[in-house]
Amino acid sequence: MSDDSDVALLPTGLSDRLPPDAEFEVRTVERLLASFAQHGYERVKPPLIEFEESLLSGNGAAMSASTFRLMDPISQRMMALRPDLTLQVARIAATRLRNAPRPLRLSYAGQVLRVKGTQLRPERQFGQVGVELVGSSSPDADAEVILMGIEALADIGVENLSVDLGLPTLVPAVSAQLGLDDSASARLRDALDRKDAAAVGAMGRQLGKDAAAMLVAMLDAAGPAEKALQRLERLDLPAEAAGERDILAQVTDLVRAGAPQLKLTIDPVENRGFEYHTGVTFTFFALDVRGELGCGGRYAAGNGGAAQEPATGLSLFMDSVSRSLPTPPPARRIYLPAGTPAKEGSRLHGEGWVTVAGLGHATGATSATDATDATDAADAVAEAARMRCGHAFVDGTIREAAPDKAD
Asked: Are 219 and 267 in contact (CB under 8 A)?
């Protein structure tokens, strides 16, 4: 036989969300969605699971290694549990809402599940809340999503927020001029991901001295946005790469104008987590909070077919967002002895109380674990404490009780 500890054991990276944290997360999600709605973003709700070829086609291929799969017993086709909601919202935009006017603004919230966690985010299941702006290639669209994310996080109480901008298309635009084979490209990408300037410089024979120096300079450019852009401006980039840099500068200016006090940084060579993105990317952080609060960027939205639309989106990760917020004050809970008129409970609800009703004995009940009811004022106050209520409603008056904090 297994004991209670065996029954309660969950797989690595999965956890229960208990009171009051579960309630706090739900309320935070709704506040974020309400903030997005004020900017014209309409909510969609995709299913938890889809056919594999639909979910993991096109951009979804980048999430293939993170995806749980199972067989559909009805259709006998393989299905996949969503590792990310962006892919599904892009599918909805390209199919169900293909005739809706552009730019299309959509928001979403839901749980995602991944095969493995990371060092910064060991959780394999977590909540995602986000937006997708589909049908515009303007830098204003990127800036809108970034600024809206900043506003929404500030509204729920996140402090010391910073945003790191990236441009994962910059290195490929430079590398395309170098004619590297797959092996050399992989070594270069690995060195850049590790921020190993020495390793990049050591590839001078394959890259060419000037190209190696340019890539090292791109590594060194990472830092505060204005200084990073100045360093990038001094580089003699190929035409395509220079065009990408100019768009990054435009987005930076727009974000800076909308959030002058924001800590804004740029990492021009960051690529990890942005494998299918086609332009400016962004990652949200908060001081002393483990893991990123959210990330997003520009990509080509579609359904795996030839037709693609420019899009930019943001996904916020509720595990990290919750960690960035102060502990909410406890609810004002009041115990109502059995038989308290319903109108009294309604009145107390209107005054902001959470009511916990006492339950009478079931007919003929003798079990010691059966619900009990207080028979006098002292019993009512004691029962309020046992039920973790700070107050009891006794004879039409509110009496204070010391909640029992034991599990």
From this structure: no
Total-model pTM? 0.89
End-to-end CA distance of the chain: 25
Same domain, 196 and 258: yes
Domain that holds residue 188: 169-269
Tens of pLDDT, residue by residue over 376-405, are 788 999 999 999 999 999 999 999 998 665
Is the distance from CB of 404 to CB of 385 less than 8 angstroms?
Answer: yes
Quick one: pLDDT at residue 407?
47
Answer yes or no: are the C-beta atoms of 101 and 274 closer than 8 Å. Answer: no
Coil, strand, or helix at residue 301?
strand
Instruction: Kindly tell me if the per-residue pLDDT of 304 is higher than 60.
Output: no
Residues 214 and 105 in one domain: no
CA–CA distance from 212 to each of 193, 200, 219, 236 (Å)?
15, 6, 11, 13
| pLDDT per residue as tens digits for the range 55-110 | 988 888 888 899 999 999 999 999 999 999 998 999 999 999 999 999 999 999 99
Work out the angle at residue 259's Cα, subtended by the Cα atoms of residues 254 and 265, and round it to the nearest 5 degrees: 75
| Distance separating alpha carbons of residues 152 and 163, to the nearest angstrom | 14
Same-domain check for residues 88 and 122: yes
Tell me which long-range contacts 206-212 makes (C-beta under 8 A, separation of at least 24): 206/180, 207/178, 207/180, 208/178, 211/174, 211/177, 211/178
